Amino acid sequence: MDMISEDKINSMSSMEKLRFVLDGVKSGNIVVLEGGLTPEEQMKLIELTMTEVNEDFPGIEMSGYPTKRGFLNLRRKTRLTVVGPAKVMRTIKKEKDLISAMISAI
Amino acid sequence: MKSKRRRKGILSRLIDALFFRKKTAKIGIYGPPNAGKTTLANRIIHTFVDENEDIGVSTEIPHETRRAVRRGGIIIDLKSKSVQNQNPTPHSKTEERKSKAKLKLDVVDTPGLATKIDFHEFMAYGLEEEEAKKRAKEATEGVIEAIKWLDDIDGIVLLMDATKDPYTQTNIVIVGNMEARGTPVIIAANKVDLADAAPQRIINAFPQHPVIPISALKGENMEELYEEMARRFR
């Protein structure tokens, strides 16, 4: 499991983040991002994942807390995002502030 | 840079809405696989265009729709249809006039959004291995196509299966993206004809958006959805 700090995430461009996450997941790691990905980045990650799906890599399992509204409802604050290989990670229960996931060996 | 683009997007949308209102709204029907997107698109076309025209085929196999399909020139005219609303909600006369007005739209039936596509799942529905792999490949292209269509969409009807947990990451990602783009969203809680449907879960999960419980298959509560579409997508 790779747990990535918000500082490291913020030092990367959007594409670098997505590549970093997907490479980690394809290597079999669960990637936990402090601060999380924005909804736009998550959509891009789904798109990027779809280009790399094959018989050995069916895709990703992604979970995260929804963004929080900031000052005057304008600024959105992203929170934690967890991404793992679909073969080993499965979200069991998800609520606004709770994620239960099962991780199994391949 | 990214936030600048977003602000410009919202501003240009506001200017468009005020001064350059489009005559035809492009409405995307989005949602996870097997939520009933094609059934809803067919229902809209049967009601307002031609009872015998189908935009696509719905089956129980996920990812049946693997290409986005647009049907243009649909006029939602609730007056001429004389639709009787069984559950009228209290709103002002202006709102009622707006909702009863004609809405010309293009409907885009999109492939289901997913984060994983495993060909073994298709084999469980009786497909041969080669056919399942081909379908999986086409399904991944379909997801990408659905995402690309978001750039050309004026509003979306996000379909969720009311018998399932609505708090999935794909639903959250779609809603989050639409909010960031300033695109209007109506959530349709589909399959309320089934005994284990719980549309209230969807209402609780997404309180910031209108949620209309419907059965696209049985045609239940469709009038309320059409009225909301006429109100939101004008």
3D structure, described in words:
- The complex is a heterodimer of chains A (106) and B (234).
- Chain A has one domain (2-103): 2-Layer Sandwich (Translation Initiation Factor IF3), CATH 3.30.110.
- Helices cover 30% and strands 31% of the residues of chain A.
- Chain A has helices at residues 6-10, 14-26, 39-52, and strands spanning 2-4, 31-33, 60-64, 68-69, 76-77, 81-85, 89-95, 98-103.
- In chain A, helix 2 packs across helix 3.
- The longest helix of chain A has 14 residues, at 39-52.
- The two termini of chain A are 14 Å apart.
- By secondary structure, chain B is an alpha/beta fold.
- Helices cover 42% and strands 16% of the residues of chain B.
- Chain B contains 9 helices and 6 strands; from the N terminus they run H-E-H-E-H-H-E-H-H-E-H-E-H-E-H.
- Chain B has helices at 2-19, 37-48, 78-81, 93-100, 119-123, 129-149, 169-181, 199-205, 222-232; strands at 25-30, 69-76, 103-109, 155-161, 185-190, 211-213.
- Chain B is globular and about 50 Å long.
Order of strands, widest sheet of chain B: 2-3-1-4-5-6
Mean pLDDT of chain A: 89
Q: Separation of termini of chain A? A: 14 Å
Low-confidence stretches of chain B: 1-5, 82-88
Low-confidence stretches of chain A: none
CATH topology of chain A: Translation Initiation Factor IF3
Count every beta strand of chain B, where a strand is a DSSP E run of 2 or more residues: 6
Please report which band the strand proportion of chain B falls in: under 5%, 5-15%, 15-25%, 25-35%, 35-45% or over 45%: 15-25%
Terminal-residue CA separation of chain B? 31 Å
Radius of gyration of chain A, in angstroms, nearest whole number? 14 Å
Physical arrangement of strands within the biggest beta sheet of chain A: 1-2-6-3
Strand content of chain A: 25-35%
The gist of it:
The complex is a heterodimer of chains A (106) and B (234). Chain A has 106 residues and is α+β, with helices and mostly antiparallel strands.
